Amino acid sequence: MDAGALARQRTQRLRASDLIFRYGGDEFIAACVRLLVMKPMHNLFDKVDIPTGGERVDTLLSHRNLVIERIVSGTDIQPKDYVQPQDEWVILLRGGADMDIAGKPATLVPGDPVFLPAGTPHRVERCEPGTLWLAVHLFPEKP
């Protein structure tokens, strides 16, 4: 293990222990700790292999009704209509994209967030190859 990897691992463990100290034994924090310590999370910008078509979705965290994903857009995006049962908050981290959100055009640049309440029709019309997104999905609670 190189020095940089060792330093990142130590930092991740420190952050995890800080969370436990600050928030106690909450189940969500425990899940985050397991994710960080047992499966160290890499930097969101590391190993961003651009797919030739469509997009690649990497699930970073899945807990109860919450899913956090890193999405990498490919070189050939075919617009696809989405109407999802969950709320979604997405932020464009790198690249650029044009979307249609409930019939209204939106041009996104790095740093632009979008909140898509459940049932909102949306579509990515165009994006630069390698556009990087962070998506947070909040699914309805199960009764």
Automatic annotation (TrEMBL):
Gene3D superfamilies: Jelly Rolls (2.60.120.10). Residues 74-125 form the Cupin type-2 domain. Coiled coil: none annotated. It comes from the Bacteria. The lineage of its organism: Bacteria, Pseudomonadati, Pseudomonadota, Gammaproteobacteria, Cellvibrionales. It comes from Chromatocurvus halotolerans. This is Cupin 2 domain-containing protein. InterPro entries: Cupin_2 (IPR013096), RmlC-like_jellyroll (IPR014710), RmlC_Cupin_sf (IPR011051). It holds the Pfam family Cupin_2. CDD domains: cupin_reut_a1446.
